[in-house]
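User: Fold this; C-alpha cells only.

Assistant: Input:
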Amino acid sequence: MNIIVLCGGLSMERDVSLKSGTMIAGALRERGHKVVIIDSFFGYRGSYSDPAEIFDNPVDALASEISSDVPDLGKIKAERAQENDARIGDNLIEVCRAADIVFLGLHGADGEDGRLQAAFDIAGVKYTGSGYLGSGLAMNKDAAKRIFAANGILTPEGKRISVRDEDKSYPCLPCVVKPKSSGSSVGTSIAHTPEEYEKALAFGFKYEDEVLVERYIKGREVDVGVLCGKALPPIEIVPKSGFFDYKNKYQSGMTEEICPTDLPDDVTEKLMETAERVFDALYLEVYARMDFIIEASTGNIYCLEANTLPGMTPASLLPKEAAAAGIEYGELCALIAEKSLEKYR
C-alpha cells in the first residue's frame, strides 16, 4: 500500500506525535509498504507534478525527541512560511488523496478532535481510526462524561467551569482540574486546598477557556486498549512521583508500567468489559485506549476518558498491551491500517 503517516501538527503533543509517526512509518516500511511522513501543520514541502510521485521520492518530517516541557506553539507557527492561519499546511489534502490510506499519528487537538477527520471525509481521503463523531465526543471530556453517565459507566463527579463564569467555586476538595479538550494531561493539576485550586484554575485556563473540575479519586490507575472492538490486556500505571502528568508520561524512567497487571481476574474482566462499552458508547472505530481509576476505598472502577489516537511508539501503552496479547509492534501498525481501510470497502 501507499501510506501517508500524518504527525506533528500544532498541538501540545507535537513532540510525541513526531516520534510516533517516525516509528509507525519505519514499521510499515519493514512490511513492504511505501510510506511518506508528513507534518500536518507544515504540509508537503517537496515538489511533484503528480501527487502519486511522492511515494517514490519521500520527503520525511524530522523526528523529535520528546521534551519534558510542552512545545512552544508560537515558535512553531513562526517557522512556517505559509501566510494564512490554516491549521494544516500547503498541499496536504491533495497529497493525502493520493494515498491508499492516511495513518493518523497525530495526538491532541489537531487530529484527535474530529475536525481533520471531517475535512478528510468531505475531501474523500481515507484515514485510520475513528471518524469525526467519535473523535469529537471522546476529545470533549465533558461530552464524554455525559455519555458515560447515560450508559451507566462510572466516571468521577464534577462540573465544567468556563473562564467567563462568575461562579468558579470548587465542588469538592481534593479535586482534579483539567482543560476540557486537551490531551497528555497538559494543564492538569490536583488541588488539595482553596489556594491550590485557584492556582490549578489559572493553570488550566492557560490552555483552554473551559476546564473540568472532578472529585479526586485515590487508587490504581489502569489503561485498557481496545482493538477492533475487543479489549487488550490492561496495563497499570505507577508514577514514581506525583501523578501521570506530561513529564511522567514521556520521560524515560519516570513511571513503572505493569502489563499484564496483578489485578484479580474479576477486576480485569470488569475493566475490559467496561472499556468495550466505552468504545461502543462513543462511536469509536478500529482502536482506542481508555483510562481508568480503581478507587482504593471502594474498588469501584471509574472511567476518566478515552483516547482515540493514543501514543504509538513501541514503548507506548497501547503497543505494550498489544504485545501482551501476542501482537508485535509492526503487526499492530499494519493491522490498524488494514482494518481502517476495510471501513471504506
